[in-house]
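Course assignment 3, question 2. Fill in each field.
Student: A.L.
Task: Predict the tertiary structure for the chain below.
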Amino acid sequence: MDRFTAMQVFVEVLECGSFSGAARKLNKPQTTISRQVKELEEHLGAQLILRTTRNLILTDAGKSYLASAKTLLASLQEIENEVKGEYKAPKGNLTITAPVMMGRMHIFPLIAEYMKAYTDVSVRLILTDQNMHLYEDLVDIAIRVGNLPNSELVAKKVGEVHKVLCASPNYIETNGLPKSPFDLKEHDAITFEGLDSATQWRFYEGQNEFDVPVSSRIKANSIDVALQGAKNSLGIARVLSYQVLPDLENNALVEVLGRYAPSPLPVNLLFIRQEFLPIKHRSFIDFVVPRLQARLNEVSRNWDLLKH
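Answer field:
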């Protein structure tokens, strides 16, 4: 016996006031309706309905079961409506993660715009320079900087950024300007744990790539600290172009060894592949991707102007 179906039939019989009425509404033979209610009573070991020639009379057990069944069916309907609603209109909760500075400078402003447009969606924004696991950490959407490993995640490229060595004008004046990466052995480095090794940096010259040892005077897990250290003339920092562009434009920092910089790093928006992608995910992706692309394209244009 399908207890759930029998429960639905029992409630429908009482709401229609007869077995025949429930049969017509459910488009089932009356004998099937009568049998399912009888099987439910046998399963429960209690008579739910007293049948007369004209009326259906609920027993005390029937009254109790009817009240509980209606509550259970209403709760189930509410759950189903909520789940189906996620695929019909943007609503519910989204968990989004992004690198700290990228999130502060570019992602949060777009989230604020999105939430004004989609008022039934709530967002949990996790800013961290450590890569979160979308499956294990229950993250819906991630923004990542850097080359991606092969995975089942869907990636949408939204831009590119460059690795940049920078130092304050005062540091350069005091310690000299390195002419090649190998000159860094005479300099203090400020290393950011989320971007490079604290003991060596990789450089490129034409088709050749090579690693150069560095001496970290400051090892930071925050890009803000790395930039602040560079502006305070504590050493040469390696950061990303979008992070340092304002300081380069106002001459608080200057680029170092730019001709040895590696190829740009991709910026991607990631999400888990699903056969039925909830519309809250789709609405956020469709809203944010073109706007983030525009922001990062503007950063790239300003970077090119600064370089030339």
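Instructor remarks: The CA atoms of residues 10 and 37 lie 6 Å apart. The chain is about 45% helix and 25% strand.
Grade: pending
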